[in-house]
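Try it yourself: sequence plus pyridoxal-5'-phosphate, in.
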Amino acid sequence: MSSQLTRRDWLRASGLLTAGLSLSRFAPAEAASSTELTQTTFTNEFAFAAPPDTMPKLRARLFANENPLGISASAKEALVKAADVGNRYAWMEFGQLKQLIATDEGVKPTNIMMSPGSSDILMAAADHFAKNGGTILTSALTYDDLLQRAEKFGAKIKALPMTKDYTYDLAAIKASITPDVKMVYIVNPNNPTGTILPTAELEAFCREVAPKVPVFIDEAYIDFYEPADRPKLGKVVTDGLNVILARTFSKIHGFAGLRLGYAIAQPEMLKTLHAYTNGDFAVSITTLMAGIASYQDKDWQNHCRAENAKARTYTTKALTDLGYEVIPSSTNFILFPIRMKTKSFENQMYSQGIGIQTREFNGQPFCRVSVGTMDEMAIFIDGFKKVVG
Ligand SMILES: Cc1ncc(COP(=O)(O)O)c(C=O)c1O
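Structure, out:
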């Protein structure tokens, strides 16, 4: 297996959970009760159908929610400059990037810890909050890297059904807070559903819940919000609440391979998490310098957001025209139910050089397709038509 394929993200990509949860419009309604998930329910259901050596030959790489446009020219220039200082430990650079982020978010640099991608922050939180057992409260259809890790280290996962619109049911989560709950895990926008929570509701939720139990909000896809609508939860952190925000440069900045992310939280919480990760010092000077350039390059971010929206609209319409019901997405991926077994679908797509992911939930097979370039999405739709006839 190639090193690419052995990456943890891929092998433990967010499998939908098989517990008995309702999928409303897409599957016969089943008991909408909360579900205690055991270790076995979190085994990954996703497996690549194609042999690894077909990966480089893909015509459309739509399985990992990457930025198909690459990194910005400004980030590339910074990478080249960074080569000249590659002999130096990064020191000033993470301070500089934290200052930029802090100013935007209305927090202090001491509220920020950098990391090599946000996965490190997720893993650190899982290790910490699971180590003495207890329960992590979340939603049934969500990204499960943190959950799998927490379960491995002793926590129970309680995954509540989503609302009929495939968003987190915040009221149900609030009602399920018990002394045993160690942390609430929310992904907003959510992976794999692509849905978002209304900002005011999420803020009110944090204000009510965080005084009782830490709230971890995984904002990996936050940059796909239009800037004016984007939740600014930094203020709940400056108000002293125990909320942890996890961010990544892997998506709109295109840094999935360069690895850059950060957490925004109370300084004491960052100190706690730092016991499980090297934090700031785990990030290379090259990545940091490129990150500083990319963070300030709003034109590039706007361009990527606009191109993503265009290709997403095209794909959604094409699938809808074919009679498929697509969950409205605010991200760089789309989830929709398919009418054949996942393995057979994967095989037929991969054999055409089209990489996607599939999920099986409640007996209903789904396709999760990342939003690539317009060309890639045209290849996807064309290939999909051939498969479904
Ligand atoms: C919801 C969510 N959180 C976190 C991550 C981890 O991203 P990274 O470690 O590249 O920052 C991903 C990756 O796809 C994701 O989908």
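One thing you can check immediately is this: Residues 199 and 231 are 5 Å apart (CA to CA).
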